Amino acid sequence: MASVPVGQRWYVIGDVHGCCDLxxxxxxxxxxxxxxxxxxxxxxxxxxxLIDRGPDSAGAVQFAREWGQTRKVRHLAGNHEEMFLxxxxxxxxxRHFLRHGGKETIHSYGIKGDQYNAMTMPELQTxxxxxxxxxxxxxxxxxxxxxxAGDYLFxxxxxxxxxxxxDQKRSDLLWIRERFLRHPHAFSHVVVxxxxxxxxxxxxxxxxxxDTGAYRTGRLTALILEGSGRRTIQAVESNGSITIVTNGx
Length: 249
Known about the structure:
The structure is a single chain. The strands form 2 sheets. This protein has a 6-stranded mixed beta sheet with strand order 3-2-1-9-10-11. A 5-stranded mixed beta sheet has the order 4-5-6-8-7, with no helix packed on it. Helix 1 (20-36) packs parallel to helix 2, helix 3 packs across helix 4 and helix 4 crosses helix 6. It has a single domain (8-16, 26-247), classed as Metallo-dependent phosphatases (Purple Acid Phosphatase, chain A, domain 2, 4-Layer Sandwich). It has helices spanning 20-36, 57-67, 79-87, 91-108, 113-118, 121-131, 134-141, 170-175, 178-181, 214-217, and strands spanning 8-13, 41-46, 73-75, 147-149, 152-154, 190-193, 202-203, 207-209, 219-226, 229-238, 241-247. The protein is an alpha/beta fold.
């Protein structure tokens, strides 16, 4: 059975996609859970795609930054963060970004309504540079792409099955899908990933998918790893209220 090193506790959070309220509720639940457990070296991992699609990407980024000041929080780059950062200098990427949830991110930074609709792409780039704090851009640009914890690897999208985990391409770690998802054999580690939405946490024995589609389903998931144990905590929004659901206690 896969395990993390003795004395460590890992809380791994799936794709937030601008659902800041869910992230805050899940963070509160994680803090309560950690406080009632035995003392451990605790780390929170954000699997990438903090932004896009949902209503408050700016808030999600700000909260992740602030949480990291009081708690060991490591964050991975997602393909949506990559598109966002490249949009500041590449018009073609900006157009693609806006079609895949980026419009909501831009709105969350205060560029919306008639102002947004009247802008050309170069004008929007200029407005983005003024509206998005350098601290947010630096935070996203400083994200990791792969984290190893004992028998586990944490990545945003997955890994190339034909390469060792120490020799992965950034593009695969952020974007890969079918070649990884359909790989029939075990990897060197159990891979915990987001990127591909699943109805429920998908544990195949060789990989664990935890992107439960927060912006679409109202369900944000954290996988907790300690020793060889696995648990989940979910923040679930329904009819305007958020409840916490635990599994594996």
